[in-house]
Predict the 3D structure of the following.
Amino acid sequence: MNLKFETERLILKPLEICDIDGFFEMNNDPNVNRFLRNPILTMADAEKYVAKVINEYKKNGIGRYAVFLKDTGRLIGFSGLKFRESEENNQSDFYDLGYRFSKDFWKNGYATEAALFWINYGFTTMKLDKIHACAENENTASNHLLQKLGFQLTNQYYANNLLHNWYQIKQDSKVLGV
């Protein structure tokens, strides 16, 4: 995977083994890990996760991309579309939008900027009919972002005994900024 994309302030590129230190640094915060089903708590966790994402690129041609600031080159998060074969919320074989950012970079619009890129990419380049997303019910920031982007809440479900909100956006939906 050599696809590299740019937005106004961000560079989006596939995660690589050389990104593990920055990836671990981004995840090494209880606030970042708070709503994750599989938190990254050790360097070994980060190595496994990055290797898993690299395998997803090879298998599916898409996955979560590293997000770097253009002006500093610092890895600040990841975002992207992921193909999900395994079942979630009684569905399988779908694409979902995901994102995670270092707490130092929250509330700067970076998640919105990256998500808008991926929604547009999914609909225009990949020709997807719809994109899904989920967020733990208590994760108010993520739920707000998804709704702001134009995702519609379709139902709720439990995973790991926690209530999650299930969203979808269709190609003909009104998307923020697109």
